[in-house]
Amino acid sequence: MSHLSASLLLDVLGRQRFGVEYQPLIKPATGEVVAYEALARFYDQSGQTLRTDHVFHALHDSPLTLFQVEYQMKQLQIEQAPAGTLFLNLDPDAYTVAETPAQANPLLDLIGQRADVVLEIIENSDLSDARQSARMADAFSQRQIRLALDDIGAPHSMLSLPLLIQVDCLKFDRSWFAQLDCPLYHAALVSLIAYARETGKQTVMEGVENEAQLAKARALGVDLVQGFLYRPLFQSAGCTSLDR
Predict the structure, then answer these.
(1) What is the rounded CA–CA span in Å between residue 109 and residue 106?
(2) Does pTM top 0.85 for this prediction?
(3) Residue 37 · residue 235 · CB < 8 Å
(4) How many other C-beta atoms lie within 10 A of the C-beta of residue 5?
(5) Distance of alpha carbon 107 from alpha carbon 205, whole angstroms
(6) pLDDT tens digits along 160-177
(7) What CA–CA distance (Å, rounded) separates 135 from 15?
């Protein structure tokens, strides 16, 4: 993985060169927008977008800084969000920084102030990370905040049965599209969608980039889709200015 230089990272954080991109979640049959997912965006001095995973990878070397950035990002994502349901991603490591038995987590309090939030939980193949995700999911569930299990089926991920049962929404990774011609993969996805339907959970197909993939999502019977096919409907907010 590429690493950001210390000077670039300090400039991004010091100048608050970050923003948010809202991507719509769409009813595949009608094209109706029913929710938005808030995604973090970071920029260099020239206004070029930096890879989000590279920034967060660098921030993990400083847990307190990771927490501060995640908190500021969540404030921005909530304040600038379009009306309606808002899907939010939260780094379990950032949540854990402020996790104490004596008082409520500031991230929990911040996100809990917003109505119609769905918190996305990322299932991780690392056991300790999976336990962090489970604790975070429990805390938000106790606040009656809906949960989504993100990136189901992504390479190098595992599927936790307790999390699968606990969450309110199943989000299927874009990689399924490359595997649907395999009968075993197709049967697995169909079964998961049927389980969600039987238990009242919402389903979302991620990574829809063209009409052919949209047609497959419709045939599968998922509730919602999202992806770059709907790029014209993306919305942006936050600081993307050049040097100041």
Answers:
(1) 5
(2) yes
(3) no
(4) 9
(5) 27
(6) 888 899 999 999 999 999
(7) 33
